Amino acid sequence: MTQQEEQIFNARAAQAQSLQQAQLLIEALPWIKEATGKTVVIKYGGAAMTDNKLCADVMSDIVLMKIIGLNPIIVHGGGNEISQLSEKLGLPVEFKDGMRVTSPEVMDVVKMVLIGKVNQELVGQMNAHGHLAVGLSGADGHTIKAEPISAELGLTGNITQIDTTLLHDLISSNYVPIIASVAVGADGASYNVNADMAAGKIAAAIGAHKVIFLTDVDGLYADFNDKTSLISHLTLNQAMEMQRSEGLSAGMITKIQACVTALTAGVSRAHILNGTIAHALLLEIFTNEGVGTMIMREDQEVGDNGFTNYPLEGLASKLHSRD
Description:
Layout: H1 3-35, E1 39-44, H2 47-50, H3 52-68, E2 71-76, H4 79-88, E3 95-96, E4 99-100, H5 104-127, E5 133-137, E6 144-148, E7 157-162, H6 165-172, E8 176-180, E9 182-184, E10 190-192, H7 195-206, E11 210-215, E12 233-235, H8 236-242, H9 250-264, E13 269-274, H10 280-286, E14 293-296
Parallel strand pairs: 1-2, 1-11, 2-8, 5-8, 11-13, 12-14
Antiparallel strand pairs: 3-4, 6-7, 9-10, 13-14
Helix pairs in contact: 4-5, 7-9, 8-9
């Protein structure tokens, strides 16, 4: 092949790639039109949150969702890092019935890790693309209120109420709230609450159209040891039945409980996705196939994406170069 022929070949290959990218955008347009203006709550956890490259990719996807016109709200935990720091400080790492025993000293660690470290890291990753993210905890604006579950569990809390005032204010100003799963009690004390349940209850309270749980498994399995038994979709009633399954881990049971909480309140769809799959969020929202497990109410069909027509407005206006 001559140099000229090689140049022509490379030019045509580049053109073909560009055409393919354009076609993908055209195919996504109907989904984009229907999704614009809708609120999506994303619970972020698992290995996808602790790997810097994966985290940067997820934050980029969420920025793209915001540019398109969705209103994302991110809720996160950070259980592994809480345990690691507790061990370094010589504090006990105890669990009862799958829930962390949170002494006042451990609660200080929870706040240091979730609010001081993980939350700010996620904010930084997103704000690498512009001035979009606002980091807060559930205690800010009394967004998440809680009460102690039991004396045995200390400051581990059960969520009693969600106040969406601050979230509505941030969304209306085109910001992306990133919320650490720390709540406040009636006595002003801080409580360690489950991030999955926080996401489900926030989705229910704010009237989100979808709630998405990004984790490090592909979704729900009929038999976790059989990787061919992934459940692509199920109804709310089926999800409620699965809550009683003995084959589910404590973590997955909590996710299903959060999904049930959201859908019972009117949220259209709940999704459990593997956040380590490249662009899993975009694949689930903007394609027919999807990549994880979708839970829906009985009055819906699988082919329905859970969005309805909405004007093309509310596009992100705060994307600009950092000072």
